[in-house]
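tokens incoming
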């Protein structure tokens, strides 16, 4: 089992920044990748960003490329999402996700993850 605890959400004005954190605990010895997804009211959950744990390679949704940065601290088993130049359309509940072992899908797909956090609300006002 892997437990994920997210933090850092909140209310920010358009153009502002927030940094989300997600700390993983439990059976984290074989973390393959971690990612962030988000879900706005009335919309499906969508991919935001992901990072391969060992190599550090990253992947971003087009909608956040150039504004968001995903990073990780292997020693702390923590993944971060630095969000800059926030827009009202970034408003959503943001979920951290974790994969143990070889995935069955590319890391932009929700099927590529087997553990999820409880979510943290990000609200961007115009």
């Amino acid at each position: 089992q892997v437990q994920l605890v997210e933090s850092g959400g909140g209310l920010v004005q358009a153009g502002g920044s927030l940094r989300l954190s997600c700390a993983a605990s439990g059976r984290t010895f074989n973390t393959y990748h971690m990612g962030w997804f988000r879900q706005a009211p009335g919309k499906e959950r969508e991919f935001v960003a992901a990072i391969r744990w060992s190599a550090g390679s990253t992947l971003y949704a087009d909608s956040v490329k150039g504004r968001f940065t995903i990073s990780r601290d292997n020693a702390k088993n923590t993944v971060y999402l630095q969000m800059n130049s926030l827009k009202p359309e970034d408003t959503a509940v943001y979920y951290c996700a974790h994969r143990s072992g070889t995935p069955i899908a590319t890391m932009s797909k929700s099927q590529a993850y087997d553990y999820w956090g409880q979510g943290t609300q990000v609200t961007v006002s115009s």
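note: The mean pLDDT is 95.
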